[in-house]
Amino acid sequence: MLAAPSTGLKSGPRSTLGIDTKSLHRNPTKSARQKDRSSMGDKKMRYGLQRVAQSLLFDHTAEKQHRVCNCCRSTNGNGVDIFRTKDGKNARFGNLVKCGSVWHCAVCAGVVTEERRGEVQAGMNAWAKQGGNVYLMTLTFPHTIAQGLGDVLPLYAKAEQTFKNSKTFKAAREQHDWAGTIRGLEVTFGRNGWHPHTHVMIFAKDGMLDDTGTVDALRSAWIAALIKHGLAENSQLNDMMQHAFDLQGGDYAAEYIAKFGHEPKLISTWGAAREVTKGHSKIGLSNINGNTHATPFMLLAWYEQGDTEAGAKFVEYAKAFEGRRMLTWSPGLKAKLLPNEAERTDEELAAMEAELPEEELAATLEGDEWNLVLSRNARGELLQIAAQYGAEGVKALLEELRERKATHSGRHWAKRMFGGGDTTCH
Ligand SMILES: [Zn+2]
User: Fold this and answer.
1) Closest by alpha carbon to 155, among 220, 219, 227, 217?
2) CA 101–ligand 1 middle distance (angstroms)
3) Which of 234, 217, 233 lies closest to 137, judged by CA?
4) CA 351 – ligand 1 centroid, Å
5) Quick one: which H or E segment has residue 416?
6) Angle CA(217)–CA(222)–CA(228) in degrees, nearest 5?
């Protein structure tokens, strides 16, 4: 069944199918909004954020563009397939080129982090079966608003290396029978500037937290590494003793990995922001309250709402994080815990987006139809409507898009699509 037809929106374009596409965009009821925060709402948001990153990272003067610029725009084959589940709850594209960049692309990050989370979870389960415990060590440093991310990140990586090579670290590893570690790198932005930090999951035997001598020694070794690489001074010792190092037991590691790659806060802020008139609410970096930190994708959402400073911060972050690894298993740990797990790159994971359960092909868009969708910046909307209304909804939306004005950036992109197989976005 299709949606109930128009509710008096006489000016709305009507498709030949008799579906008033405006009825597909009625003000959502409370329950519909709640639904929107589920899978399709999340996907739509990710396409929106990816589009913002594409416009920010596109460089008119460059010969080769950042790979996110082309993600989910160019095709691998003839036309763009749209698959949907029979229950109308989910949809996905087929045949699209993926970038696989977890730092820059909200669409690929969604797919890749979910796969990586599953691997870590499986590793933790395997270790628990062997009677082991997983600790969560969190490392950071006292940062200020004046520090550029491109300057501090290389120093931070050096401090981590010094810490890992320290006698203290090696002694703890020996003493508590570590099977290995998984290091997760993250960054947020707050009132005190960039906040890079690492969460290190330590696969060890029970009892490490009881060994306060080892915990204190690790804390001191981390602080010494920060001072050595100029990320802190002796005068900040008290502050660092309290905030730069933390070691927690198993539940914390489980909680960390359960939330890995999820941005629930972003989804709710983004959703709320979309409901107010664009430009009405400028959140602004200066309005970050207390210790609240923004994730990089949140910066994109703010930029889209008119906060240019947030856009500049995202560009700074994008450059600094290029080529860095998000999750790093120490050598041999994955083979030990998950001997049958194939080693796959982020690019491979992003490309092999899983088929949906009981999916069906809803439509295949030709080049000019896909161009239309790109020029109206409507990929997320198309997926949402394809999920809910299937082939007829897709047709109706295409009709409506023809009536809609192309966005400036949309026109810019459309010109470059299907232009002789060019896979860069210049
Ligand atoms: Zn991507």
Assistant:
1) 227
2) 6
3) 217
4) 9
5) helix 408-416
6) 125
Report pLDDT digits (tens) over 199-222: 999 999 999 999 999 999 999 999
Ligand 1 mean position, distance from CA 57 (Å)? 13
186 and 255 together in one domain: yes
Distance 295 CA to ligand 1 centre (A): 17
Å from CA of 257 to ligand 1 middle: 22
Is residue 9, in this structure, part of any structural domain at all?
no
CB 399 within 8 Å of CB 16: yes
Question: Domain range spanning residue 206?
Answer: 109-350
Domain identity same for 346 and 363: no
pLDDT digit string (tens) for 95-111? 999 999 999 999 999 88
Q: Are residues 167 and 263 both part of a single domain?
A: yes
146 and 235 share one domain:
yes
383 and 329 share one domain: no
Nearest in space to 362 (alpha carbons), one of 400, 380, 381, 388: 388
Compute the distance between CA of residue 310 and CA of residue 301 in angstroms, rounded to an integer.
9
What the block records as the tokens of 420 is 């002789």
Q: How many domains does the chain have?
A: 2
d(CA 55, ligand 1 centre) in Å: 14
User: Is the domain of 235 the same as that of 294?
Assistant: yes
Tens digits of residue pLDDT in 239-285: 888 889 999 987 888 888 888 877 655 544 544 443 332 333 333 44
Distance (angstroms) between ligand 1 centre and the Cα of 69 equals 8
CA of residue 252 to ligand 1 center, whole Å: 30
Expressed in angstroms and rounded, the spacing between residue 47 Cα and the centre of ligand 1 is 9
Domain shared by 164 and 239, yes or no: yes
CA–centroid distance, residue 199 to ligand 1 (Å): 24
342 located within any domain: yes
CA of 399 to the centre of ligand 1 (A): 28
* Token reading at 156: 């931070």
Ligand 1 centroid, distance to 110 Cα (angstroms): 9
pLDDT bucket at 413, cuts 50 / 70 / 90: very low
pLDDT of residue 416: 41
Does 264 lie in the same domain as 295?
yes
